[in-house]
Design brief:
With 63 residues, the protein is mainly alpha-helical. It has one domain. Helices cover 81% and strands 0% of the residues. It has helices spanning 3-25, 29-34, 39-60. α1 packs across α3 (39-60). The termini are close together.
Length: 63
């Protein structure tokens, strides 16, 4: 597994945990840590989204 794949996987896991917290407890960890829709939180959300798209590629890798 390449380093970019590992980074994407970590970001996907962070996003999944955040969505789990939102669904279960209505608690947005990213917004709590970086501010409600601050530039930094938007960057985190964008990176998680891009990682989710990258994860589609991981489904089809035969490595």
């Amino acid at each position: 597994m390449k380093i970019i794949d590992k980074i994407a996987l970590v970001l996907i896991i962070i996003g999944a945990i955040n969505w789990g917290l939102i669904g279960l407890f209505r608690f947005d960890l990213v917004a709590t840590l970086f501010g409600e829709m601050s530039v930094l939180s938007r960057i985190v959300y964008t990176l998680v989204g891009i990682s989710g798209l990258w994860g589609i590629k991981l489904l089809f890798d035969n490595d």
